Structure formats: structure tokens, C-alpha cells
Amino acid sequence: MKDNRQANYKLPLSLRKGKVCLILCLLLVVAGLTAYTGTEPTVPMGDYVFNYPANFGNRINVPANNPTTQQGVYLGRLLFYEPKLSATNTISCGSCHQQSKAFTDGKALSIGVNNGLATRNSMSLANLLWARKFFWDGRAASLEGQVAFPLTNPHEMGQPIEVSVQKLSNTKVYPGLFKIVYGDSTITGERIAKAIAQFERTLISANSRYDQYLRNVYQPTDDELKGMELFNRGADPEKGIRGANCTHCHGGPKTYLELFHNNGLDSISKDEGMAAFTGLVTDRGRFKVPTLRNIALTAPYMHDGRFKTLDEVVDHYSEHIKQSVSLSAFLQGESNEVGGKSLKLQPKEKKQLIAFLNMLTDSTFITDKRFADPHRSTKN
Amino acid sequence: MKKYTLILLLLIAGFGTRAQTKEAVVKVSGEVTSPLTIGSADLQQYKQTTVIRKDRDGKDHTYSGVIVSDILTKAGVTLGSELRGENLAKFLLVEASDGYQVLFALAELDKGFTDRTIILADKIDGQPLAPADGPFRIIVQDEKKPARCIKQVTAMKVMFAK
């Protein structure tokens, strides 16, 4: 080093200046590169193309003022897994919506900040691209509108939007990312919601064994086929046809129809369900018919997580439907016995039905890297 | 004493809101000149019609209510002499409280096109519809499948096919 410096002194001034410039430039490039890889990873850009089977139909729901872009989805994924959005910096959307459990949390009632209990069971987030009403009672009309609830709910993430905006503004990463996505680095509640919604729309599950069967690339077992038949058929004991008619509410290639029903859990539901905002007695205990996609992964079941296993669920439909004014018409007078009051499935049929429900597990979906926690490598 | 009056008042207020369960209505909107909100009493203001149709029990039942096109005409929908040209690209979307939706082309509802009667029913065999079916249900005369006899109707929206 010393020698070099001495040598430098001997050089003519102009040349020395040039060399210093070069070194400075190199230093800048190196510094720039490290800064780039350090805080601003390459963000994919351009329109996001949704890939899904034709039999899912094209009645998708993307609001005109929030088109899905690759950069938006990239930001949304970071925010979905961002614990800074909670009052304690410990809870993110991903805490209650875990990929390995098809974006549920395995608890009867979800646990939020300061161990507060949410009032309902976490919902699986799959194929929301086709949904138009959100939550167990359908009270949110868009994914963008839905986000504010968990963010600010004292039993979930418990942090005012302004505080979230402030926290993100104070980070190195987010202002730059918001600039890439929205054109300027201003962070707002609306922009946070839009990006998260974009990410949620990409959570498409379409590769269960049932999907493969519908694509003619999987041959179901006998039990699975029998279960599928029961699932899709109404009982008609006079004609000797046995069925469970689950399809009336849970049918179609998505196993989701966006309907709201009372499925006879209680004669007087503790949770009012839709009646809380419609005020109609016939809406009491009426809830969203949830998707059955990945159902084997999303226990416990129902809006309050009352059933631990699919056996309990099937027993409910077979023998324990409770009568009330709000009980769905589709669950009244359905029986496999002439004049029977309940479905009355045989033990073997229950097993077959559950074999079919297990066909709805999409292991590609729960291991897809595009949906995983991007903070993982630095966090754990 | 004051304390008790307060409690009493609170109790009355509480019962008041409990008893005030809302009445189900059907909202008529979309390509209409005057949107309507129809409750049970309003439906009685229209001319009543009956349609006989089999229910799931396989037996014939008499449904009574109001011809859907009468309601739409009241709302100013382009039926009758106006049902031509681009208006033939209009449809009626009927929605139920469970989110189920079915649609009818306007021409399916117009007397000039068909004699088949489609009514918004509120009674079966002279009795109010069962809670899980009513208070309002569409009854489509002679249609083989019952799928468009949509129950618990909450909205009827007239729209243009895009």
C-alpha cells in the first residue's frame, strides 16, 4: 500500500486525478451493488397472468381500480407476512393463515395480539379470485375492504392504520417498493390493502386429486368414487338412490358456490351470523358455505371450530341437524330412509364421503414457493 | 327511584330493538325508471294471480302472488311495445338471501312473447310460504326443473348483457 501511494505521488497531477476518479467510480459501483442486493431485490414487473382451469369459469372478481401486477403481488406478499403491521410486531396475516394448513391456523378460535381470541375460526384463503363476499357472514364486499378488519381488530393485529403506515415508512425497503408499485413512495392504508388483495387473488388451488380426476389424469379409488357419488347426489329412498347432496351447497369444480346458509348446528345460534346486519330472523346462524378445498388440512371445522374431525362433520350432517326457522331448505326432509327425518348415512358411506373429501387436498398449493413467507430466511 | 326508571327505560329500549326484527323486502333496481322496495303489504296492492306447480313432494300446489312483469312495468322496465331493438338484450337477475342467482331474459317475462306465467309468490295453498322458502319465491309455470323457482328472493335487477 505504502509503495503504491508513493508511486502515485510521482505521477503527473492530471493522471493522478483520473486514477482517483476511476477508483471512486469503482467504489461507487461496488457500494451501489451491495446496497442494491441488500435492500432492493429485483422486483418482477408487468401484468400478472392468472392461471386456472377452464372449468373454474371466468367470473373472477378484480376491481377496475386495482389491476393485478407482478410488482403489486410481490409487495402484497411481503405485507401479508409482515409482523410490523401488528401492535406487538409479532402477528402477521400469515400467523392465522398458514400456508401448510391451506391458510388456516389449526385453532378453534384464532389467537391475535396479546393472546386475544378472535370471535371466529380462521378461514382458508384459496380461490378468493372468484369470491365476491368475504368473512363467515359475508359482511365485506371486497378483498380490499376486508383487510382493514384484521389489521385494526383488537383481537387480531390491533394496530391503527396510521401507525402501520408510519412503521412501514420508517423502513428501508417499503417506501421504494411502494414507489415501484404505485409510482410514488407514499404509503397509505388503501395502498397496503390493495397490494395485499393482489397477493390474495393469486392464491389459486387447482391441483387436488379431484382436479386431476376432472382433467382425466387421475383414476379415483372405489371409495373415492362412491364418496363422490354420495356427495353429488340427492337421496331418493323410494327409488333406492342413496345420497348426501352436499353438492347443493358445496358443489362445482371449485367446491365453492358462494352461498350463505344455516346448516343446522344449533336451534338458537349463539353467533347471529348474517342476522347481525340484516336484522332478519331467517338469517340467524346463517354463514358462508366455505370452500371444501383442502378441507382435510383446515380442521377444526365450522365458524366456531366446534368439530375437530371430518368424522364429526359427517355425523352432524347425517344425524344431528338442528331444526330452526333459519335452517336451510336444502337440509330439510333429506333422508336415505323413506319418511326419515335425517340423512342417515351408513358407517361405510361416511367413510366413502370422507375419502372423497380427502381427494380435495392440493399439496402443490401448500408447498408453492410463490405463496410462502418471503421474510423466512431473515426471520428464523 | 331514578335508578329504577333508568333501568326500566333501558330494558324497554332493549326489548324495542329486539322486537324490531326487520321485514324482508324485494328490491327492484337496475335499468328501471323508478326503483321499488316491495314488502308483503306492497305486494297485495298488485293484481293477484295463481300458478299450479309440483313441489319436491311431487304434489301439485297452488302458489299465489303477482306476475313479475306487472312489478317490472310498475318500475318502468321496457316491456310490451318497448321490448324490441337493444332492449331485447336485457335480462332480469333475481337474487336470494343465500346469494343464489338466476336470470330470465326480459322476453321470457313478457306476455307478447309467451303465455307462460312467472310470478313472485308469497303464498302456497293460501298459506304464507315456509320461512326457508319465503316470504317471496319465484314460481315458473311448467318449467321442468325447479332450479329457477328461486326461494327467499331479496332482489330483482334488470341489466343489459354487456
Automatic annotation (TrEMBL), chain A:
It is found in: Periplasm. Residues 222-361 form the Cytochrome c domain. It comes from the Bacteria. Pfam families: CCP_MauG. GO terms for molecular function: cytochrome-c peroxidase activity; electron transfer activity; heme binding; metal ion binding. Heme c 1 binds at C93, C96, H97. Its main location: periplasm. Binds 2 heme groups. Heme c 2 binds at C246, C249, H250. GO terms for cellular component: periplasmic space. Binds 2 heme groups per subunit. InterPro entries: Cyt_c-like_dom, Cyt_c-like_dom_sf, Cytochrome_c_Peroxidase/MauG, Di-haem_cyt_c_peroxidsae, MauG/Cytc_peroxidase. Keywords: Heme, Iron, Metal-binding, Oxidoreductase, Periplasm, Peroxidase, Signal. Its cofactor is heme. PROSITE patterns: CYTC. PANTHER family: BLL6722 PROTEIN, CYTOCHROME C PEROXIDASE-RELATED. This is Cytochrome c peroxidase.
TrEMBL record, chain B:
It comes from the Bacteria. Keywords: Signal. Residues 61-159 form the Oxidoreductase molybdopterin-binding domain. InterPro entries: OxRdtase_Mopterin-bd_dom, OxRdtase_Mopterin-bd_sf. The keyword Signal applies. Residues 1-19 form the signal peptide. This is Oxidoreductase molybdopterin binding domain-containing protein. It comes from Mucilaginibacter gossypiicola.
